[in-house]
Structure formats: structure tokens, C-alpha cells
Design brief:
Elements (H helix, E strand, L loop, with lengths): L2 H45 L7 H36 L14 H6 L7 H5 L1
Helix pairs in contact: 1-2
The structure holds zinc ion.
């Protein structure tokens, strides 16, 4: 292994840890949000609220919508993290999917699932 290969392997393993940490976060968030959503649904069923007439029902419906959309986001993040790990395995992780240039490390650290460099993302 050349020093350059060794450096690439080291950075891949750092990237993999970062993806795994992000995955643990997203999974914990998804689990917490699913529990929260379940509790909201149960509480609203127990209270038998009417969304149309009861102002509290509207609040519950809004809250349920909000939590459901956060849950969707957490699940989408998990899917994006899977795709990022696949790219890491096939050696295309951190390469802009549009222009083919390497994505700078600070951007990857901030957005581990990004597939584009700043310039392409702005377009
Ligand atoms: Zn690009």
C-alpha cells in the first residue's frame, strides 16, 4: 500500500465513522418520533377530538402532522445514509455526482450525505 492509498483508507474509515454516527442519530430520532407520533394518535383517539369543530382537535392534528413530517425526514435521512455508505464502498463517496470533482471535507462533515459540491448544489 502506498502512503497515498493509506491516507485514502484512513480518510474512508473516518468518513465511515461519521456516517455511522449520523445513522445512529437518525435512527434514535426516528425511534423517538415514532413513539411520539404513536402517543399523539393514542391520546387523540382516547379524547375523541373532532378536528373540524374542536380547536384542541386542530392543534392535535397539527402536532401529529408536524411529528409525522419530522419522522419522514429522519427516515429519508436513513435512506440517504445507506446510499452514502454504498458510495463509500464503491469509491464514489465524496465525489461530486455532477462535475466529478472531490467535495471538500468540511462540506462532507457538515452534510455527510451530500452528492454534490457547493458550486453544483448552488446551480
Ligand atoms: Zn460539482
Amino acid at each position: 500500500m502506498t502512503p497515498k492509498d493509506a491516507a485514502a483508507t484512513a480518510s474512508r474509515s473516518l468518513q465511515r465513522s461519521a456516517l455511522e454516527a449520523a445513522r445512529a442519530d437518525a435512527r434514535a430520532r426516528a425511534v423517538a418520533l415514532a413513539a411520539e407520533l404513536h402517543a399523539i394518535v393514542e391520546a387523540s383517539e382516547g379524547a375523541n377530538l373532532d378536528d373540524e369543530k374542536d380547536p384542541e382537535g386542530a392543534t392535535v392534528a397539527f402536532e401529529r402532522q408536524r411529528v409525522a413530517s419530522l419522522l419522514d425526514g429522519a427516515r429519508a435521512q436513513l435512506v440517504a445514509l445507506d446510499a452514502a455508505e454504498d458510495r463509500l464502498d464503491d469509491g464514489t463517496y465524496g465525489i461530486c455526482s455532477e462535475c466529478g470533482t472531490p467535495i471538500p471535507a468540511p462540506r462532507l462533515e457538515a452534510l455527510p450525505t451530500t452528492t454534490r459540491c457547493v458550486a453544483c448544489a448552488r446551480r
